[in-house]
Amino acid sequence: MLPLSPPAVTVALSVYNNAPHLDAAIASVRAQTMADFEFLILDDGSRDGSGAVIAAHAAQDPRIRVIARENRGLVASLNELIAAARAPLFARMDGDDLCRPERLERQCAFLAAHPECGILGTWAELIGDDGAPLGAGGEKPVSHEELVAALRTGPLFCHPSVMARTALLRQVGGYHPSYRHCEDHDLWLRLASRTRMANLPERLLRYRVYPGQVSQRHAVEQAINVAVSWHAHLRRTRGEPDPITPDTPIPPLDQLDPLFGEPGLGARIRRETIDRLSFMPAALAREGAPLLLDHIRSLPAASRAPLWRIAGRLARHGHLGTATRVALSLAGL
Question: What does the alpha-carbon distance between residue 80 and residue 74 come to, in Å, rounded to a whole number?
């Protein structure tokens, strides 16, 4: 039976095959200096023993509520957690990261003192797969004005560090499935016109970085969708209908011009994507190669010179096949 009075915070964790780090992640939430929270854990069809880890913690801590079902993906899981939340504040968490003990206390205190603020993230300490510190990184814009200035490209927040007002998340319809791999950035854009935002310049989350993360596996699609989300945001700010509905997949680049009614939009987004990925040679060498080659072919020969740097970067990182194809295309061969 649920307590009669709602908790101050809902901590929301969506789990999919996070067994290697899940025990420590859950324990870091349970060890918070602030005790007045519920801990919603949704097992999104894990097959690696995550369910047993969750069950062991739930048996020890009545604040934990478990939702277990078949796999539906992160966006569906986050929206289900938003709908199930009982608290006025909604705190994100991931199954491979670690909260500092004072995280919830510090964020709740800030939001209590700043009722105009609806989204609050924190800085993070970057750690490796083994938990060892990785050095510098994890900083984000702090003030609302700095965040608004970074709206176009982000990143605005370390997503699993975010605490937001639950009512705001529900008002905008939560996360939109159309923006695969950048559903959080689209959400911040939709919330930016409704509330003030901030980041605490304190490393209250230990954020794990390792090969195979979404930001690395799906870098090209993520970069394209970030660019599309910005242009959809511009349409909304002008009072025009949003061409991308919540459940409509973003179409290929060559279909964006008629969808948005903007000739040349697809080509501009392709250029923005190449610029964004120019220092990610692994992504450009794999799924980004066709996009890069199409971009080169679309340019007059006199405008191609700056892209030779990308060819050199690909070669230096061992992507010789793609580097050769890029060089031949740049040379017009």
Answer: 10
Beta-sheet strands, E only, within 89-231: 89-93, 98-99, 117-127, 163-165, 196-208
pLDDT digits (tens, 9 = 90+) for 205-220: 999 997 665 556 789 9
- For residue 310, give the 3-state DSSP assignment: helix
Q: Which residues are within 8 A (CB) of 190 and not within 5 positions of it... i.e. 6 or more apart?
A: 172, 233, 236
Which residues are CB-contacts of 111 (< 8 A; sequence separation ≥ 6)?
89, 117, 120, 163, 165
Quick one: CATH architecture of 9-212?
Alpha-Beta Complex (3.90)
Tokens representing residue 77 in the block:
């899981």
Whether this prediction's pTM lies above 0.85 is answered by yes
Q: Of the candidates 51, 64, 40, 61, which has an alpha carbon nearest to the alpha carbon of residue 18?
A: 51
Per-residue model confidence as pLDDT tens digits over 137-183: 889 999 999 999 999 988 899 999 999 999 999 999 999 999 989 99
From-to residues of CATH 3.90.550.10 in the chain: 9-212
Tokens in use for 153? 């490209």
92 vs 98: CA distance, rounded Å: 12
